[in-house]
Amino acid sequence: MGEVEEVVIVGAGIAGLAAAVALKTAGVRAVVLERWEELRATGAGLNLFPNAWIALDALGVSHKLTSLYSPSYKGLITNVCKGTIQEVSMTGSHRVGTGPTMVHRKALLEALAEELPPNTIRFSSKLSSIELDDGSPITLLHMDDGTIIKTKILIGCDGVNSIVARWLGLGKPVSCGRWAVRGLAVFPQGHGFSQVFQHFHDVGQRGGFIPLNDKELYWFLFFTCNPFPQGEDTISKTPEWIQKQVSENFAKTFPPIFSEVVQHSELSTITLAPLKIRLPWDIILKNVSKRMVTVAGDAMHPMTPDLGQGGCIALEDAVVLGRHIGESYIQYGNLGPGLVAKALEKYAKERKWRAAGLITGSYMAGLMQQEGLTWWIKLFRDFIFYKFLYQRVFNAIKYNCGSLPNSSSESEGQSKID
């Protein structure tokens, strides 16, 4: 009749692994299903703001990264059209001396995975469809290889095109009208840049780079033009083609140093994809949880990268989810269907408005930072957005997701679900 698991998490990305660690801390064991053969880091780097470090502290893994990476305290913004350079503080007014820290995405995944018991992650496990077992709290997971996994709690952390989100009734993410190219540049002899975030703005495009260490730089480019003529195959484009297009086409007006960074890219790290978001009212008005099923990370709230919050609030999701499930388990000694459903409802209620707000804030921040805007959008940007709204948007990085309950049980991550 298929396997039986208590908690199944779909997706071994940031949200999925962090959720498994959070549940383990509370004494609840989970199995993580990953469709790929190994941990796969789409995107070379990830900028972690203070709210992410609070979550990593709660998960007990922050120390693994702070010893490897340094925060950035300032940024240089080059307006390509005007030829001006502006220096900005990256620490904000919320916490003196604290700036965002760029880390290797794979290093974060590995730091989380190391906290899990052996065989927690099942690789080459692709979810095909979801079915309810009538008359019981069981959810049936039909896998791509024909097997069926039974679970009482299902947490979808399966990314932008989430099967679990679709099953819950959430709409498909929509294009925001921009594309993103990202990569990792390697300078074997050292790149010589200080720990400064370099930004370049031009009409319809925005890019930049930031050091990860003394030999590696993470770089990105966001632009509005569609790089593919209608009907052209996007899958067949090689990293070499993308790299060449960035230097000769997409960012040809940028200073030469940006092209030099791109030319030093490790080809396997270069990605090109359209930026998609979930409509904020979709999250507010529809089900983020149903029965004993919920979603986290990009499966719930794909957003543009303009505030650098996608991965950060995925970590928040994990802590909040672990807190609600863990508190229920520790208080009652089991995770019966009614208790779990209530815990997931609390989690959904706590996350809905924050996720919707950050989707909106990220989209607006991206729109406002573009050059070549119409006069009325510039008017809104200069007299309303920057004066009244931007600080509220920026305050998102102050968020404290709270701590995790710690199970006193000596059993290694064992839980009982009635």
Q: What do these coordinates show?
A:
By secondary structure, this protein is of the alpha/beta class. Strands 1, 2, 7, 8, 9, 10, 16 and 17 form an eight-stranded mixed beta sheet that branches. Strand 13 and strand 14 form a beta hairpin.
Helix share of residues?
A: 25-40%
Strand content: 15-25%
Tell me how many strands there are: 17
C-alpha-based Rg, rounded:
22 Å
Q: Mean of residue pLDDT?
A: 87
Which H/E pattern describes the elements?
Answer: EHEEHHEEEHEEEEHEEEEHHEHEEHHH
The poorly predicted ranges are 93-97, 409-415
Q: Determine the N-to-C terminus distance.
A: 19 Å
Largest sheet: 8 strands, mixed
The total count of helices amounts to: 11
Give the overall form.
Answer: globular
Structural class: alpha/beta
Give a concise summary.
The chain is of the alpha/beta class and 418 residues long.
Topology:
Elements: E1 3-10, H1 14-25, E2 31-33, E3 45-48, H2 50-59, H3 62-66, E4 74-79, E5 84-89, E6 101-104, H4 105-113, E7 121-122, E8 127-132, E9 139-143, E10 148-156, H5 163-168, E11 174-186, E12 196-202, E13 205-211, E14 216-223, H6 239-250, H7 256-263, E15 271-277, H8 280-285, E16 289-290, E17 293-295, H9 310-332, H10 337-368, H11 375-394
Parallel strand pairs: 1-2, 1-10, 2-7, 4-12, 10-17
Antiparallel strand pairs: 3-6, 4-5, 8-9, 9-10, 11-14, 11-15, 12-13, 13-14, 16-17
Helix pairs in contact: 1-4, 1-9, 2-9, 6-7, 9-10, 10-11
